[in-house]
Write a structure and sequence with these properties.
Elements (H helix, E strand, L loop, with lengths): L7 H14 L9 E2 L5 E15 L4 E18 L10 E6 L3 E2 L13 E5 L2 E4 L1 E3 L1 E2 L5 E9 L4 E10 L3 H8 L1 E5 L3 E9 L4 E6 L3 E8 L12 H28 L8
Parallel strand pairs: 1-14, 3-15, 5-6
Antiparallel strand pairs: 2-3, 3-10, 4-9, 4-11, 6-7, 8-10, 11-13, 12-15, 13-14
């Protein structure tokens, strides 16, 4: 009888072979075209459901591209503003299993089976003391790429906050469209958005102390014009009173 001896090297080679056959984690490759707008990128694998077989079931998994969209919030004088919320809202739509989004398509969820749906995840960002915010995302890679369109909404509750608290930061630009694209094979990472800097100005109704920050030059000129218009009637009234008694020879 011949005894077969299996060497450790052969075992290691076999494990590598089977790992490649069953789809091991692919190394993340990134060619950044975003100019540091998208940071902290990583590739993770998550359980998204189950595969049911005759006598057993296995976990259904998918690759997810994760990272953060970074930006800055300032006032009209360029000073950083803290505490402003920025929210990412992807366009609505559905994507069939195994299909890419194409050049014009977009989606809000990836439907993999009748019982599971993988949602696009965006965590709102809040500007820090330096005015920098970061919107975290976790996006499923479908057809070897991520292609998401949507809009960034700046301080979405500012009007309600002003009504409730009497003061708020009103953004100069309420929202802006964006597109986030990543190709797993080429590593191309692209992020397109309108303005690079979001400017806010303090607004209020006088009930509480005004928020710090410079107002828009146009708003300042409008306030000065309103103050001047209030002073003009008083000056005209004084002049009319002076003319009224000018015809009388009092004190002579």
């Amino acid at each position: 009888m011949t005894t077969a001896i299996i060497k450790p090297a052969a075992i290691g080679a076999s494990l590598l072979f089977f790992a490649g056959c069953f789809g091991g984690m692919k190394k993340l490759k990134v060619v950044d075209f975003t100019e540091q707008r998208v940071l902290d990128t990583s590739l993770t694998r998550k359980v998204t459901g189950k595969r049911e077989f005759l006598f057993f079931s296995t976990a259904r998994t998918a690759n997810f591209f994760e990272g953060g969209i970074q930006g800055m919030v300032t006032d009209y004088a360029g000073n950083p503003i803290e505490g402003v919320t920025v929210r990412a809202m992807p366009d609505a739509g559905k994507l069939k299993p195994g299909e890419g989004t194409g050049e014009t398509g977009s989606f809000a969820a990836v439907e993999e089976s009748a019982s599971v749906s993988v949602n696009l995840s965006f965590t709102p960002g809040i500007s820090d003391t330096m005015g920098v915010y970061k919107v975290r995302f976790s996006l499923p890679i479908v057809g070897g790429k991520v292609d998401v369109r949507g809009k960034l909404v700046y301080n979405p509750g500012w009007d309600q906050q002003r009504l409730n608290l009497g003061t708020a930061y009103e953004p100069q630009l309420k929202e802006s469209p964006f597109r986030l694209y990543y190709n797993l094979d080429t590593g191309a990472l692209i992020f397109a958005e309108g303005p690079r800097k979001t400017i806010v100005q303090p607004v209020g109704d006088g009930r509480v102390k005004a928020l710090p920050g410079a107002k828009a030059p146009g708003a300042s000129r409008a306030a000065e014009a309103a103050a001047a218009s209030q002073q003009q009637p008083a000056a005209a009234g004084d002049k009319a009173e002076e003319d009224l008694f000018k015809g009388f020879d009092f004190g002579q």
